[in-house]
Amino acid sequence: MTDLSNPIPSNPPRSQWLDVWDQFKSHRGALMGGILFLLIVASVYLGPLIWDIEATHIDIRARNQGPSWAHPFGTDQLGRDMLARMMAGGSTSVSVGLTAMLLALFLGSFIGVLAGFFKRLDGPLMRLTDLFLALPLLPLLLVMMLLFREPLNAAFGPEQGIFILIVGAIGITSWMPTARIVRGDVLAIKEREFVMAARSIGTPDNKLVTRHILPNVLSPIMVSATLGIATAIITESSLSFLGLGFPPDFPTWGRLLFDATDYLQQYPERVFWPGMAISLTVLSVNYLGDGLRDALDPRIRGR
Amino acid sequence: MLTFTIRRLILSVPTLLFISLVIFLLLELAPGDPMAQVPLTVPPEVKEKMREALGLGQPAPIRFWKWLVQFFWIEPQVMIDHYFGTTFSQGDLRVISWQTRSPVMDIVIQRMPQTLWVVGTAYVVAIIIALPIGIYSAYRQYSWFDQMGTFVSMVGFSVPPFFSGVLVIVIFSVQLGWFPSIYDTTHVVDSWDSFVYQLRQMIMPVMVLALQITAQLSRFMRASMLDNLNQDYVRTARAKGLSEYVVVMVHVLRNSMIPVVTVIALGIPAIFGGAIITEQVFKVNGIGQLLIGAIQANDLPMVQTLTFIFAVLIVLFNLIADVLYGILDPRIRYD
């Protein structure tokens, strides 16, 4: 009773995001994953400002060197600095991962919300999702690379064109899981009282979706965002590794790994660095997603 | 259950037709010309004849229809002929590869055993490893074994096969020299020594593939076991005085296997589809490599047929997984 007679609560109010942050912090793997991912992103984007050797600068007299102070990761068969190439490749790989993830997320959330919110669209859109899930994705990606490389290169230049192609191809082949999860959540939230209340005061459909439904399905979207980065980076590297990704003079981690396999016997460390970079990035993102899932689930939070 | 299966089977026909159309239309846009390799001295009218001999030169709908007929009508006849010595398919035109000018299905059949051996073995090995890991991790949740298992499966998820494959080649083939780095598909097993050699050349690709599959399966097994371990029927079983082994390995395990079995079924198309990248790394002469080769050589009939076979397998095993789910779990009723 004493609690009730005291009108001022003793604890300051806590926002939802503070709770999420607390839960996230307690997940040690997720925190480390997040920090590692930020470190990798920072070093590939900001690194070239400090380490100002050009990734494409050829110094044929310094080729095939081991690690030294001048070249911490050594040089490749044309004397290009491996550290600079790793950073240039990383910025491409991470950009592809982030952009493709955003595209897939946008498509997935859009289709998921449409299917969940409008009953008429549910059937056709979910059949479409099933259809996409039944497609053999990697073969189709390879076919798309083969088909659209030339026209896009002609339209946007070799680097821009292939970037658009890879991001587009990964984006439109990886939105399905997000769409399914979002649809399920929208279906559940649509029936809740607050949505009915909002509808009863005359909120139009588009406002209902953007103001009331989307914020509530944000957590599954965020989790699939982190996992989407991981798959996008792996897919891009696989394409580059199969020789159907970026052109040779335009390094990405997958491409560096592919080039290094030719010198596997003599210089195995050249395979190691890009492979390690891909694996660490994906590992950190996966841990981040794991922690986010726990932190954003209010049933687990606070335990 | 039967009506559900039949309904799904019928529904999968338009799905597959649509997928084949999508693949066909995609390939229709392909820039490559099968006559590009023909010398310039060959006169244009001869080239035109050659083009027609390959089934080109007709409008797209007719070619699509022809492909459908060849794939669904003539190829099964060829198979029946092969097994029973009949002559249904005599004189019919089959799907011809532009690369080798021989029937696509013959090449697919030649390549299938290698893929099945390597990827299939990896799948079996992965299942054998993953299930005990998943069971024990869930039983001792948050123990060091569980933490270890989580970490290893995270690594298995995160390390792409083109890195782990190259890494094991560096370690076991280049440094230690234990295993050959290239899979020799012409190798014939006819004695103990050749069997040992076959084992040695299979170990590395199987290891790389199994790591990936184990990572996924053990996560599933763990999650599914955890769902069941806190259920009331488990407490009842313990209260009845059943031994811990019986509780976990009989009561909990059987219920937890339901989703895991369907996940295993869903992964089977990947066995036939071949691990494209792993095959590329270890130079296994399988289906995946056939596809890559066909894509690089602009061999459109081959790409079309292979991609469609993958699609058929995916649709088929999705159906099988759904049906299995219904059979294994009596709570689920589709009709």
Write down how many β-strands of chain B occur, each being a DSSP E stretch of 2 or more residues. 0
Helical amount of chain B: over 70%
Global shape of chain A: globular
Low-confidence stretches of chain A: none
* Rg of chain B, nearest Å: 25 Å
**How does the helix and strand content of chain A classify structurally?**
mainly alpha
Any chance you could write out the topology, listing elements then pairs?
The complex is a heterodimer of chains A (303) and B (335).
Chain A: H1 2-5, H2 16-26, H3 28-50, H4 82-117, H5 119-134, H6 137-156, H7 158-172, H8 176-190, H9 193-200, H10 205-213, H11 218-241, H12 253-260, H13 269-296
Chain B: H1 2-28, H2 44-53, H3 60-84, H4 104-139, H5 144-158, H6 161-175, H7 192-229, H8 232-239, H9 244-273, H10 276-282, H11 287-296, H12 300-328
Comma- or semicolon-separated keywords:
heterodimer, A: 303 residues, mainly alpha, 72% helix, B: 335 residues, 0% strand
Structural overview:
- The complex is a heterodimer of chains A (303) and B (335).
- With 303 residues, chain A is mainly alpha-helical.
- Chain A is globular, with a radius of gyration of 24 Å.
- The model of chain A has no long low-confidence stretch (mean pLDDT 81).
- Chain B is mostly helical.
- Chain B is built from twelve helices and no strands.
- The longest helix of chain B has 38 residues.
- The interface between A and B is large, with 43 and 42 residues.
Quick summary of this structure?
Chain A has 303 residues and is an all-alpha fold. Chain A has helices at residues 2-5, 16-26, 28-50, 82-117, 119-134, 137-156, 158-172, 176-190, 193-200, 205-213, 218-241, 253-260, 269-296. Chain B is globular.
